[in-house]
Design goal:
The chain is built from eight helices and three strands; from the N terminus they run αααααααβββα. It has helices spanning 10-21, 26-43, 52-64, 69-86, 111-120, 124-136, 140-144, 175-181, and strands spanning 151-152, 157-160, 169-172. The chain is elongated and about 60 Å long.
Length: 182
């Protein structure tokens, strides 16, 4: 992913190269670069000139702007990559701290709500996709990449290939879900 584009700064190119070497996904790379751009706009200079106190002030600014816990932590992760990996300054984020996220229980659908959701899909293929997502706990992207060969009806499992984080995993397959898939 090395670019010969003259508009990319050497620091940005070095960070892109470091992310590519570590095989970070394109979405992760884009998120990390957005974090650095956000910080650079706040800082008003090249990020490599920043001190730990500048990073702390940036985090305080994000909190005061009402930015979500998730976004703050994702931004700090991107900046952490820049400073710890690309700039080889492991102590740069020592004045920042991860924002603790409140633990919330997920909202669970009732049996009737699940039934209505599945019935709302008039196309059998769409109904099966919804049933697999709900019944096996798969992400939408995992459902659309499933193949018939990923169904192991003998062991009652689904093989999820290269799901989130490029990891393979197995998901349980209930008898009722197997019936829908047939």
């Amino acid at each position: 992913m090395t670019h010969s584009n003259k508009s990319i700064s050497p620091l940005r190119q070095r960070m892109i190269d470091d992310m590519t070497l570590r095989k970070l996904s394109p979405k992760t790379q884009a998120a990390y670069l957005r974090a650095v751009v956000k910080f650079a706009r706040f800082f008003g200079r090249s990020p490599d000139l920043a001190a730990p106190e500048d990073l702390r002030r940036f985090q305080l600014y994000l909190v005061e702007m009402g930015v979500s816990h998730t976004t703050i932590n994702a931004t700090l992760t991107g900046l952490g990559f820049l400073f710890e990996v690309t700039l080889e300054r492991p102590g740069a984020l020592k004045r920042t701290s991860r924002v603790r996220q409140p633990q919330k229980l997920p909202q669970v659908l009732s049996v009737d709500e699940v039934e209505r959701l599945l019935q709302s899909a008039t196309n059998p293929k769409h109904r099966a996709a919804l049933a697999v997502a709900y019944g096996a706990g798969l992400r939408a992207s995992e459902v659309v990449h499933l193949k018939v060969t990923d169904i192991d009806s003998d062991r009652m499992i689904l093989r999820v290939v290269q799901g989130k984080g490029q990891r393979d995993r197995y998901a349980m397959l209930s008898p009722s879900l197997l019936e829908i898939l047939r």
